[in-house]
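Lecture notes, continued. The same structure-token format from the folding unit now serves as the input rather than the output. Read the line below as a description of shape only.
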């Protein structure tokens, strides 16, 4: 199923989206920020055009967000790393055409705001990034990645960027939806109906496959980075840790970069084996699928080391915690995605 062909089951699962007036995806946020009361045109906003970052709500009032699935297996924040510098291919756009509304999300490196594009008469999302020092390499990489994947189904269209000496703002289509973590949380992390889960996972797999075809690996796939709108359409967001894959004689080269969210990381990270970016996405897709179907992570953090050594494998139960039986077909696909040997691990296409 394509992500823009929502089915009744997917729409039923996402019916709670309409209950949210503002889509929030703040799992990785470690501080709470406010937009100055004088907010107006972005060109005049001190938080977007000046050297200083947004003002924290009290210097010592940081809010650490900790979320758990089914009372255990705590979600971890992403671990960042520096990327090589890549020149952007989008031209700069004028900030004067945008009016800032409110903060709608945040992640490890950026903060996302809803805004209005007066020139095009449309709502947009603006991601604000700090480009000071070595962080500019990462910002330029995200601009390049966003340019390459723009147009892939299930990815918000990238419209361009504007920047000052210290800040860069990326402009995307605004997705009026909610991330899967929030939807699962509202359900009390109960397992999702298999048909609805298949529809969502198929859409994510199509999007990931489209990105891989263009030479981009997401590398931070997780519930928080998958959004579903009120129509049941599925979107993959936050390409801040994505990479442009290197190939030799048509074959993907391994990477030494360590990034992503701990519980979604492939086991080969821990023993420094060859790490292929596409196989990283495969593993994370398998973890995401398991969470949707079973309502919890497939393993505890302590199990990761044993997995990395090949001393154990990921068990795929026949029955969920609420007594629902999972089909053999989807269980086999999960086993293929969660194969500890990356050479034997299936590609994301297996869920398409």
């Amino acid at each position: 199923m394509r992500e823009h062909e929502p089915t009744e089951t997917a729409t039923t699962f996402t019916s709670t989206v309409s209950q949210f007036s503002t889509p929030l995806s703040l799992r990785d946020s470690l501080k709470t920020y406010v937009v100055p009361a004088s907010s107006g045109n972005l060109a005049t906003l001190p938080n977007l055009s000046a050297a200083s970052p947004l003002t924290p709500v009290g210097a010592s009032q940081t809010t650490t967000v900790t979320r758990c699935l089914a009372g255990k297996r705590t979600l971890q924040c992403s671990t960042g790393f520096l990327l090589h510098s890549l020149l952007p291919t989008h031209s700069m756009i004028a900030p004067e055409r945008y009016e800032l509304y409110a903060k709608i999300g945040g992640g490890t490196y950026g903060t996302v705001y809803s805004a209005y594009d007066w020139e095009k008469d449309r709502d947009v999302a603006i991601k604000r990034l700090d480009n000071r020092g070595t962080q500019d390499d990462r910002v330029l990489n995200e601009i390049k990645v966003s340019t390459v994947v723009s147009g892939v189904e299930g990815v918000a269209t990238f419209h361009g960027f504007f920047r000052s000496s210290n800040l860069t703002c990326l402009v995307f289509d605004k997705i009026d939806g909610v991330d899967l973590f929030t939807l699962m949380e509202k359900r009390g992390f109960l397992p999702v109906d298999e048909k609805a889960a298949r529809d969502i996972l198929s859409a994510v797999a199509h999007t990931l496959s489209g990105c891989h075809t263009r030479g981009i690996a997401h590398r931070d796939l997780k519930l928080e980075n998958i959004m579903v709108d009120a129509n049941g359409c599925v979107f993959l967001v936050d390409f801040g840790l994505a990479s442009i894959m290197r190939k030799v004689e048509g074959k993907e080269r391994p990477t030494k970069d360590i990034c992503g969210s701990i519980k979604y990381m492939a086991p080969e990270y821990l023993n420094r084996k060859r790490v292929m970016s596409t196989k990283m996405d495969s593993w994370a897709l398998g973890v995401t699928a398991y969470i949707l179907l079973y309502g919890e992570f497939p393993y505890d953090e302590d199990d990761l080391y044993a997995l990395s050594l090949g001393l154990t494998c990921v068990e795929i139960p026949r029955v969920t915690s609420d007594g629902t039986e999972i089909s053999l077909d989807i269980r086999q696909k999960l086993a293929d995605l969660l194969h500890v040997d990356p050479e034997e691990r299936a590609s994301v296409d297996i869920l398409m």
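Point for the exam: The helical segments are 8-13, 46-49, 135-149, 180-186, 194-213, 277-294, 303-308, 328-337.
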